[in-house]
């Protein structure tokens, strides 16, 4: 049912590319070559491993956009997908990330989360060296609006904010994407 809904959404809204984040589907390179009538791009995964991918990029075949996967910007086992989009003569590097609380091995200490955040920083730095436009989307599970308050993720959120600022990247505030009893979570959209 979800697949048919996504296919209808893509056609109705004339969407060429769509990232799906926080999906809960068991994905391997073999069982997910196509979804909702789209070509599927996955994060880099170790060979012969079955895992729950939490992020995919769907390409609805378009004549106007050329999509080139950028495996050189990805890291095996890290939930990010990078691609280069060719729109006419313009090239844009597009990235999407899902910052997990725990990795595929169940590691979730603050130090391990920080190490994974630094993997993401390295990916951004490599992409920026190419001097192309960059757009990064995703679910970072961090709320910049709560920095400096009684917020358990204060240090990670501060480190991400400081990295973006020192790199000259702009965070596009799209407002809260999640709310609970304690408040909201504002997800960064990053661009250069």
Describe the structure.
- It is a single chain.
- The strands form 3 sheets. Strands 5-6-7-8-12-9 form a 6-stranded mixed β-sheet, covered by helices on one side.
- 23% of the residues lie in helices and 35% in strands.
- The model has no long low-confidence stretch (mean pLDDT 80).
- It is globular and about 45 Å long.
- It is of the alpha+beta class.
- It starts with a helix and ends with a strand.
* Main sheet summary: 6 strands, mixed
Query: What's the average pLDDT?
Result: 80
Radius of gyration over C-alpha positions, nearest whole angstrom: 17 Å
Unreliable runs: none
**Overall form:** globular
Sketch the topology as an H/E string, one letter per element.
HEEEEEEEHEHEEEE
Terminal Cα span: 37 Å
Oligomer: single chain
| Count of β-strands | 12
Task: Report helical residue fraction.
Answer: 10-25%
Strand percentage lies at: 25-35%
> What structural class results from the helix and strand content?
alpha+beta
Q: Count of DSSP helices?
A: 3
Strand order of the largest sheet: 5-6-7-8-12-9
Defining traits:
35% strand, 6-stranded mixed beta sheet, single chain, 3 helices, 192 residues, alpha+beta
Task: Draw up the topology in text.
Layout: H1 2-13, E1 17-27, E2 34-35, E3 38-41, E4 51-59, E5 66-69, E6 80-87, E7 90-98, H2 110-128, E8 133-139, H3 154-166, E9 170-171, E10 176-180, E11 183-186, E12 190-191
Parallel strand pairs: 7-8
Antiparallel strand pairs: 1-4, 2-3, 3-4, 5-6, 6-7, 8-12, 9-12, 10-11
């Amino acid at each position: 049912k979800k697949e048919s809904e996504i296919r209808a959404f893509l056609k109705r809204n004339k969407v060429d590319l769509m990232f799906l984040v926080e999906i809960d589907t068991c994905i391997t390179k073999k069982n997910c070559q196509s979804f909702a009538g789209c070509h599927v791009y996955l994060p880099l995964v170790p060979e012969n491993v079955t895992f729950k991918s939490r992020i995919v990029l769907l390409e609805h075949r378009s004549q106007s956009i050329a999509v080139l996967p950028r495996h050189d910007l990805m890291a095996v086992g890290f939930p990010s997908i990078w691609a280069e989009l060719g729109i006419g003569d313009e090239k844009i590097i597009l990235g999407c990330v899902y910052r997990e609380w725990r990795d595929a091995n169940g590691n979730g200490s603050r130090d391990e989360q920080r190490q994974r955040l630094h993997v993401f920083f390295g990916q951004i730095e490599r992409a920026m060296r190419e001097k192309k436009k960059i757009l990064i989307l995703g679910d970072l599970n961090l709320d910049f609006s709560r920095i400096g308050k009684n917020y358990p993720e204060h240090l990670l959120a501060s480190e991400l904010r400081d990295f973006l600022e020192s790199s000259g990247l702009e965070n596009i505030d799209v407002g809260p994407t999640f709310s609970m009893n304690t408040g909201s979570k504002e997800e960064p959209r990053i661009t250069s």
